[in-house]
Design a protein that fits this description.
Elements lengths: L2 E6 L5 H12 L3 E3 H5 E2 L3 E2 L2 H12 L4 E4 L3 H10 L2 E5 L3 H14 L18 H13 L1 H9 L6 E5 L2 H15 L3
Parallel strand pairs: 1-5, 1-6, 2-5, 6-7
Antiparallel strand pairs: 3-4
Helix pairs in contact: 3-4, 5-6
Length: 174
């Protein structure tokens, strides 16, 4: 595992997982939210996100977490490992509320500079509808990837934790 793409709903724990795997595997971690959002929640242009993503993908090793459909296909194509955190909607909604409380009036480490944590109705709806509107397209993209990629779909945190223990165990032998 040298090039890992992590995708899933908001609140599923993509950034937390990316950071953990980065430490375990000694790989650089890139959070797409930190790249996409300029100070004060100003988005960058789509073309700029594509260029910045391309520069990361060209590196020898990386972990990239985030959805952003404009760059998802190139990340999935170049990844040797894809992790899809496909949790129940209630788990993800809990995750975004918990994050809002935990980082109240602060900027998360995986977020763009000076983007203080917020929870607006639009994002709440996006997370609420993710499994109905976004997850089917993710499965479609995953089904079209070439053979030989490691694709992991986790629907429960206990399964992800078991996977992390196996990665940690394997990496301690290297």
């Amino acid at each position: 595992m040298k090039k890992i793409a992590i995708i899933g709903s908001g609140g599923s724990g993509k950034s937390t997982l990316a950071t953990k795997l980065g430490h375990m595997l000694h790989l650089p971690v890139f959070h797409l939210d930190a790249i996409f959002w300029k100070p004060g929640w100003e988005p960058i242009e789509r073309e700029e996100l594509i260029k910045k993503s391309q520069r990361i993908i060209e590196q020898n090793a990386w972990i990239i977490d985030g959805n952003y459909s404009s760059t998802m296909d190139i990340r999935l194509q170049h990844a040797d490992t894809v992790i899809f955190l496909h949790y129940k909607t209630s788990v993800c909604l809990y995750g975004i509320v918990k994050r809002r409380i935990q980082f109240h009036n602060k900027t998360r480490p995986d977020m763009g500079e000076n983007c203080k944590e917020k929870l607006d109705w639009e994002f709440f709806q996006w997370v609420r509808d993710y499994n109905k509107t976004k997850a089917p397209a993710v499965y479609d993209r995953l089904s079209k990837l070439e053979e030989g990629k490691n694709i992991y779909v986790f629907k429960k945190r206990k399964d992800l934790n078991r996977f992390l223990r196996s990665v940690e165990s394997a990496s301690s032998f290297n």
